[in-house]
């Protein structure tokens, strides 16, 4: 790999197209490919797509794969005129699409047979890709990460190396659980309030005024990570409050006829939700 590794991008949708724009803005104009010949027409500084993923591989040191799913990733890598057919030993493939962790290991094994290294790299938020505004959530061995880092830092505002192969994808999946789970919680809360005669906009006003930075969402996990004795000491009190408050929510839900499965699960598992590590002995 050269001192200034050459970059390639496969898939020019919102994320891949944005990544290509960010790379071009930093002076690292990538070779690109998309099944749509016109895909780069509106992407500032990005050249027209080359003929195949193989051609991207031939002219790149790091290839960023921003397709939709596992099936497309397999095709782009191993299909006719795929990346691996044009790769030389030492090429790094960075997988930007969200797939299951076993798929990451499967694709890494396929790449390794061609002398190609693979990094898994979840990214978020996708709508900031063209503004160098995403976080890259990376999994892979440190040596490969170091070689790919100049390219990664040219499209991401922050690169977080989460651990070995698969760790980046596991972290992105966990983040998605928080996102969609919180959406479900907000849905249940809003439906419950509305059924009780509350304008949903008033509920949002209360939440945003009381916690404008959204710190409450992660506050207890920060407490668990810090694992301070003074926080451990209040766990029984917090558990009693959780149980009391969610019991009130269940009573309101029963009264207005609104199902609240997330509330039910959270109350039933309150102790587990609040528990700190059981391996630490009190001082």
SSE topology sketch:
Layout: E1 7-10, H1 14-25, E2 31-33, H2 53-58, E3 62-65, H3 70-78, H4 83-86, E4 92-95, H5 101-112, E5 117-124, E6 134-139, H6 142-155, E7 156-163, H7 167-195, H8 200-210, H9 216-226, H10 229-232, H11 235-256, H12 261-268, H13 270-274
Parallel strand pairs: 1-2, 1-3, 3-4, 4-5, 6-7
Antiparallel strand pairs: 5-6
Helix pairs in contact: 3-5, 11-12
Low-confidence stretches: 278-283
Q: In CATH terms, what is the fold-level topology of the largest domain?
A: Rossmann fold
N→C terminal distance: 52 Å
Beta-strand residue percentage? 5-15%
User: How would a textbook summarize the main sheet?
Assistant: 7 strands, mixed
CATH architecture heading of the largest domain = 3-Layer(aba) Sandwich
- Structural category: alpha/beta
The level 1 CATH classification of the largest domain is Alpha Beta
Q: Rough shape? A: elongated
> What radius of gyration results from the CA coordinates?
23 Å
Number of strands: 7
